[in-house]
Amino acid sequence: DNNHAMLVGRAIFSVLLLLYVVFLSPLSVKVPTFIQHCDQVARSLSNPQVVFMSRDKRTGQSFIVDDYLKGYQWIDENTPKDSRVMAWWDYGYQITGIAKRTSIADGNTWNHEHIATLGRTLTSSEKKAHNAIRHLADYVLVWAGGGGDDLAKSPHLARIGNSVFPDHCGDDDPKCNKFSFYSDYSPTPMMASSLLYKLCQHKVSPGVKVNEKLFKHVHTTKHGLMRVYQVMNVSQESKDWVADPKNRICDAPGSWYCVGQYPPALEKLIAKRRNFAQIEDFNKQGGKSALDSADSAGAAWKRAMTGQAGNQHHAD
């Protein structure tokens, strides 16, 4: 550092290297592209996801799309305060924070088995889905209207369900290809008969209707981006059981974090699950997944879950 000639030489080399990188190297093209990309991503992330601007393709005029916000507000204003809302986990925090209702799952998805149970239920046939949902939720919410809606995500939901429930698509179809779209974008038979397809396409696609004796359509937002269905014949026995503090499994008495249990009526369904060990399972012990580590009671149906009535803090 005391050699002035060396310091000058290093400074000149640094300047030349910088000039080369900025003006002569391939990075001179890539850097502005990268900066533009970062700016676009930042703008996208800074916009609220429940309200956004759109443009009319015919008139070119901009307008605000607030379907998601209005949909959650509708739930807050038109459903009982103790209602439990089932939806794919993407919308769990919005259900809790905006609609102010208990969500069955949210973005804290460390419990893969629970998320798979949700995916399996939503992509099952209408009657099979209702047999489980009536013990878990009072309403079902779906994002519809095309684009990245629940129907577009549904093959992913089916694959997740099949990873834990081998009877869903079968071990011979691990990617659950039987639940997908054909090349003409029409649904395969398994998708067409699923609850999720019928909820999204109810009276939209020709001949598609949900059985309103099982799921009653109660609300669709202005642009059709959110649809809400009331679960009919909800099991009050299961709802009371889950709401009873005696049936909560908490870290400590009075703890804010309760992993919860499924109601006994779902014992047969939960017994079909197989463990899905994940790399990030920090509770993993003896080859078991985090699910079994939290299963203090040891019974098949005493599995970690969210969405207990009266518990507004949820973890999957």
UniProtKB/TrEMBL annotation:
The subcellular localization recorded is: Endomembrane system
Give the required cofactors: Mn(2+); Mg(2+)
Membrane topology note: Multi-pass membrane protein
Name its species: Durusdinium trenchii
InterPro entries the UniProt entry points to: Oligo_trans_STT3 (IPR003674), STT3-PglB_core (IPR048999)
Name of the protein this chain belongs to: Dolichyl-diphosphooligosaccharide--protein glycosyltransferase subunit STT3B (Oligosaccharyl transferase subunit STT3B) (STT3-B) (Protein STAUROSPORIN AND TEMPERATURE SENSITIVE 3-LIKE B)
Pfam families noted in UniProt: STT3-PglB_core
Keyword tags: Glycosyltransferase, Magnesium, Manganese, Membrane, Metal-binding, Transferase, Transmembrane, Transmembrane helix
STT3/PglB/AglB core domain sequence ranges: 82-139
Principal localization reads: membrane
Task: Give the protein family.
Answer: Belongs to the STT3 family.
